[in-house]
Design goal:
single chain; about 180 residues; alpha/beta; Rossmann fold; 2 domains; seven-stranded mixed β-sheet; 6 helices; about 25% strand; globular; methyltransferase activity; transferase
Length: about 180
């Protein structure tokens, strides 16, 4: 099986218990480690794929927690178009907007606060992955993170099954699955 991972990292696949024959990772960031012979990495925007990638076909498009970071409705549409064009099968996961804990900052209800309050929380919250270096960085990080709900996923992936990943019985993530 050949897999294209939009927004992922090779490290995810080196740690996987089962690995496809070939993995092509496309990310705005460069590789953070050596690239094994069964993988390739390209610098690219999943919403506007370079022609040499867009022309290829894969067995599966995989994307884990990326669509909420592509930058607004129009870019989410372009992302979904890329997913549909690259393969007949896909697995696209995103955190669920209405889960009570915002997963990027691990802050209860943060996604429901006004922008100013989210930025203030992003600058001070002790459980976040990376602390913003400045207020401007915090604004950018908060604006760059737009959690999706079921209706948005259904709109982006109309022919997919939308699966729900649950934690303690509550919907935690949505996964668009096709094929």
């Amino acid at each position: 099986m050949s897999v294209i991972d939009l927004g992922g990292r090779v490290e995810t696949w080196t740690r996987a218990l089962v690995r496809p024959a070939h993995v092509h990772v496309v990310n705005l960031e460069g590789p953070t480690s050596d690239v094994p012979d069964w993988a390739e990495v390209d610098h690219g925007d999943a919403c506007r794929l370079p022609a040499h990638i867009a022309a290829r076909r894969y067995d599966l498009v995989f994307s884990n927690s990326v669509v909420e970071h592509v930058g607004g409705y129009e870019r989410r549409l372009r992302f979904a178009e890329s997913v549909h064009a690259l393969a007949d099968r896909h697995w696209v996961q995103t955190p669920y907007r209405y889960f009570p804990v915002e997963p990027h900052w691990l802050a209860p209800g943060m996604q429901f606060l006004p922008l100013r309050a989210r930025v203030a929380l992003a600058r001070r919250w002790p459980l976040q992955h990376t602390v913003a270096a400045s207020r401007e960085d915090a604004v950018a990080e908060v604006l760059w993170t737009e959690l999706l709900d079921y209706t948005q996923m259904r709109h982006l992936f109309p022919r997919s099954r939308i699966r729900t990943e649950r934690l303690a019985g509550l919907p935690k993530s949505l996964i668009a699955v096709a094929g």
